[in-house]
Amino acid sequence: MDGILRRNYLRNEEYETLSPDFGLPYDESKGRFYEEFIYGDYRGADLRGYALNLPRLYVIVSSGTASASEAVVNGLRGIGLEVVLVGQKTNGKNVGMEGVYLEDGAYEYLFMPVSFQGYNARLETVDPNGLAPDALKGDWNNGYEEFGSLDDDCLEYAVTSITGQFVRSSESAAQRRPGVRLVEGLSLPEISCRPEGMILLPPDDGRKD
Questions:
Q1: What is the pLDDT of residue 190?
Q2: Cα torsion through 38, 42, 44, 47, rounded to 10
Q3: What confidence tens digit (pLDDT) does each residue in 9-24 have?
Q4: How far is CA 132 from CA 3, 92, 135, in A?
Q5: Rounded distance, CA 205 to CA 186, Å?
Q6: DSSP, res 170
Q7: CA of 63: how far to CAs of 6, 70, 109, 189, in Å?
Q8: Under the phi-then-psi rule, with left for phi > 0, alpha for psi from -120 to 50, and beta for the rest, what region is 127?
Q9: Which of 27, 99, 117, 176 is the 20 to 30 Å CA partner of 109?
Q10: Can you list the residues of the chain whose pLDDT is less than 70?
Q11: What is the pLDDT of residue 127?
């Protein structure tokens, strides 16, 4: 189990009614809803063929990294994967919202109140002060540069750590033309299994996406 949601005590008291709506089982002793994530059977899809077996994951972050992005990092750490954060401290948003439509005459309003807090499998939530980087690096602030430029301190640190080779762009920013440029001359670890295309889930009229 690695998806855990905690709601306020009033909502939790209604768990017998809410569990079917959420599609989540409720642990009364811990006061939290759980979402089971099983690689061999996730909503009818077998995800084992997409496993990359990575020893660690490098994630470039900044103060703008929030919500679902932080939840992914926290969730992976909760199942024991080493996640190395490079950049600046993240936003610290550990809660989520569910939309509620209300009608008033000819108008319809959508409200998005905060309604739950997320936890990983170790019952750890994202620090509201933000996730601290393992390698503190300046955020990209050198104007509009090509995506993937190794002049970005964060990307340079991550690629150097992964490959064991010191990398840096040999060109100045003024010499580079606009557009996406592939990084050359690097020896990246071989990944035995790479996913191809999107993950297809079987049709299910009752499934909520």
A1: 63
A2: -80
A3: 556 566 666 666 666 6
A4: 22, 10, 9
A5: 47
A6: S
A7: 25, 11, 30, 30
A8: beta
A9: 117
A10: 1-24, 30-43, 140-146, 168-209
A11: 96
